[in-house]
UniProtKB/TrEMBL annotation:
Keyword Transmembrane: yes
Keywords: Carbohydrate metabolism, Glycoprotein, Golgi apparatus, Membrane, Signal-anchor, Transferase, Transmembrane, Transmembrane helix
Highest taxon of the lineage: Eukaryota
Family annotation (PANTHER family): CARBOHYDRATE SULFOTRANSFERASE
Location(s), subcellular: Golgi apparatus membrane
GO cellular component terms listed in the entry, alphabetical order: Golgi membrane
Membrane topology annotation: Single-pass type II membrane protein
The protein's Enzyme Commission number: 2.8.2.-
UniProt family annotation: Belongs to the sulfotransferase 2 family.
InterPro entries noted in UniProt: Carb_sulfotrans_8-10, Sulfotransferase
Phylogenetic classification of the source organism: Eukaryota, Metazoa, Echinodermata, Eleutherozoa, Asterozoa
Protein's recorded name: Carbohydrate sulfotransferase
Region of interest (Disordered), residue spans: 51-70
Amino acid sequence: MLHSLKSVVLLLTLITISVVVSLYQALFTLNLFRDHSETFTSRQIAGALPKISGKGTHSTERRRGENGELEATTNYRDASWIDNKAEKSKSWLEDRTALELDSYRYLHHPETVNRTYDVWQTQQLRRKVLRETCDSLRDKHRLRKAEVPPSHLLVDDRHRFVFCEVRKVSSIAWRRVLDALASAYPAGHSVGGMGLRRLGTYSAHQRERRLSEYTKFLFVRDPMLRLVSGWRDKFLVGPQRHNYQSSWGAKIRGYSKHRARNNSSSDSVHGAQQLVLSSSAVEDQPVSFTEFVKYLTAGPPRSPLVRDMHWETYNSRCRPCLVRYDFVGHYETLGPDAAAILNALDGRRQGNGNLRFPAGRSDSLSVARQEFPKLASEDVVALAKLYDVDYELFGYSMSRFRNWLQNASTTK
């Protein structure tokens, strides 16, 4: 009996020792696996990092692995997305540069347009820059969130096009051409003497369908040349100059006097001189370009003059990031661009095949050459800020404009 008891105790002891040894081996093996797993994860991340270019192009986070331990992981999707954005940004800058060079080359050497200009190849570049710039502006939250299509867009249902009329970009010539194009409309469908309708006269569904299905186009020019052309027409030589002078002359001069008084508090001599000059001005004397620019950039922000359609920004007037324009014409290539879009609509003209865009156009270079040197540097900076989005959207550049202006002056 005693012998049997000793045997049982010995057996239990051996079993206990066996269990302890097994547990120790299991824990040892688990630790080895854990160390190997963490080392592998670190190597995997280290090996991936050289493949990701640029600072901040990857993100590392901690998560629970299958073994319950925290592991480091890399968000490769975010890194790839940022790489793509960087590549797109580089391509966008290259496209913008190419477009800017073309624009100012044709401004400075208009005689080369017919020899070297490719309408449809340039259209691809202009639309690409426009779309990429719109994407960039959205990313930077520089566009209004609650945009609606402009109600003033001109619509021709018969020829299925939508046109954004921009004043001081051959707008009168375009109205005459489009009037001739739409002259076959039945009586009663005319708007403003033309066979056209404003987009705002349609229902929401009808507007959406036309913006989706019709050919949409607009014409633009360097914003500063358009600005000086608008000022010259409305305050200097145009048929409406007396109306603009009587409506805005006193307000603009009053603002100039107010600025002079403020300046006199910090610089009594200079301020007094400005005040004397402003006070001695005759009321019916045309508003100078300098006075006009100062009021436009630093005057009352809600002034109707700022929103006047003759110098309203392209972004505000045509909403090019909302309306997907199919054709973007430039003033410096007006002849071939106008011919191209009219030829594209040729199948819808019904007998107007001889329609041609007028060859003549105004040139604001001489006026710009006289007026821009009179502006103070802060006024030029203010103008660049006011029209910065327009410059970005359509492949123009304030710095290239000033360089072009200087080159044009030296070759006068």
